[in-house]
Amino acid sequence: MQFSDVIGQDAIKRQLVQMVQQNRISHAQLFLGKEGSGGLPLALAFAQYINCERVNGISKPPTLDLFGNLETPAAEDTSNATVVQDACGVCNACKKAAQLIHPDIHYSYPIFPRKPGAKSKCTDFVTEWRSFVHSNPYGNSYDWLQHAGADNQQGNINVYECEDIQHKISLKPFESAYKILILWMPETLGKEGNKLLKLIEEPPPNTLFIFVAENEALILPTIISRTQLVKLPPLSAPEIAEGLVKNNLATNTAHQIALLADGNYREALQQLAHTDDDWEVLLRDWLNAIVRKNKIAQLKWIEGISKQGREKQKQFLKYFIHLLQQAIRLSITEEANNAASPGLDFAHRLNKICGLHQQEAMMQELDKASYYVERNANAKLLFHALTIKFYHIISNNSVILVR
Questions:
Q1: HEC sequence for the chain
Q2: Same domain for 207 and 302?
Q3: Is-above-0.85 flag for pTM?
Q4: Which residue has the higher pLDDT, 335 or 267?
Q5: pLDDT tens digit string along 202-221?
Q6: How many other CB atoms are found less than 10 A from the CB of residue 399?
Q7: 58-93: per-residue pLDDT in tens?
Q8: ∠ at Cα 100 (194, 54), nearest 5°?
Q9: How many structural domains compose the chain?
Q10: In a domain, 78, yes or no
Q11: CATH number of the domain enclosing 284
Q12: Do residues 68 and 194 both lie within one domain?
């Protein structure tokens, strides 16, 4: 993967390029950013950039001499050349890195035992890992575990993987100047991670560690203290929209989805998968059943939403939160200059049936519901409880009318 394939994060890309060009690469770095900010794609692009033959001034790949020793070609004179801002993507090192088969770039990630008592290591899942990264590089740990067939099993980086890391890092680089380990989701490292502390603090020559994390609070403090922190900000809506347009999505639709994604490109892709769902109709039916005190309609609606998948339920809750945010902005600023904004008319109607404090209370309940959905709460009980709470929050009997 090249930097040009990574959505946004231009300032971080320039910082990483400068590190390499000035030979100031820290031996252990922690890429810390919320889900969907692009930590893993950025780490992959950085590793490829470091080992790219063009970046290192090598005109042709290394060869073996008559005695079987690695013979590195002389570096080109780049004193007057412009700084290479990205990996070339065409040299042997780049091709191997792009296919995740470079012998000097290693990967560790959460895994699970395929059989009870199995001493699983990441190399046992390498085929699934390559498939996952190529198809969904912005996915989270849940996406990865489902892709690997974990079902309801929890993933972690176990003691056997830590021992395998020690073995791999002890080897000399095969082809490139640096040997790199990309460790994704160090939050899943338990006490076993202490086995890596000395290796991280005093690695072999030309060895780099790149940790990619989403939640700093879950990482072992002893690992954080041994790494250089690189914070990744959430993506902006224009950056997400640009990424969606590159995937052949219509510009208007891309901007609408980007507004709802809240800086999370994975979330944008999830919404894209559900663009055919009419959340407005679903929400209108729910609110009408609540304010009309129609218990039969409420039970029918709860039955329907509970049969939807967890991702669809999350998307619906996020859609409702976004509409409430729009309604609050409208009630405070009294601005109507965003007439083309999706859901604006519905936001006006929400302002007619509930005030600011009611909307804030509903948003808090929706946030809690999203949290519980993520953790496999019983959908029927969850949405039944929400229906009762919203009935008490909405004090009048106004109805969201059909447009």
A1: CCHHHCCCCHHHHHHHHHHHHCCCCCCEEEEEECCCCCHHHHHHHHHHHHHCCCCCCECCCCEECCCCCEECCCECCCCCCCCCCCCCCCCHHHHHHHCCCCCCEEEECCECCCCCCCCCCHHHHHHHHHHHHHHCCCCCHHHHHHHCCCCCCCCEECHHHHHHHHHHHHCCCCCCCCEEEEEECHHHECHHHHHHHHHHHCCCCCEEEEEEECCHHHCCHHHHCCCEEEEECCCCHHHHHHHHHHCCCCHHHHHHHHHHHCCCHHHHHHHHHCCCCCHHHHHHHHHHHHHCCCHHHHHHHHHHHHCCCHHHHHHHHHHHHHHHHHHHHHHHHCCCCCCCCCCHHHHHHHHHHCCHHHHHHHHHHHHHHHHHHHCCCCHHHHHHHHHHHHHHHCCCCCCCCCC
A2: no
A3: no
A4: 267
A5: 888 889 999 999 988 888 89
A6: 16
A7: 544 455 555 555 555 544 444 444 568 888 888 899
A8: 105
A9: 2
A10: yes
A11: 1.20.272
A12: yes
The token duo for 63 is 């060869």
β pairing state of 70-71 and 63-64: antiparallel
| 287 and 221 both lie in a single domain | no
- Residue closest to 212 by CA, chosen among 372, 18, 12: 12
**Residue appearing with tokens 């004090």:** 395
Identify whether 255 is part of a domain. Answer: no
Structure tokens at 121: 């290591």
217 and 328: one domain? no
Provide the terminal-to-terminal Cα distance of the chain, rounded to the nearest Å: 47
277, two tokens: 């769902």
Give residue-wise pLDDT tens across range 8-32. 999 999 999 999 888 888 899 999 9
Domain of residue 329 covers 277-393
Q: Is residue 162 in some structural domain? A: yes
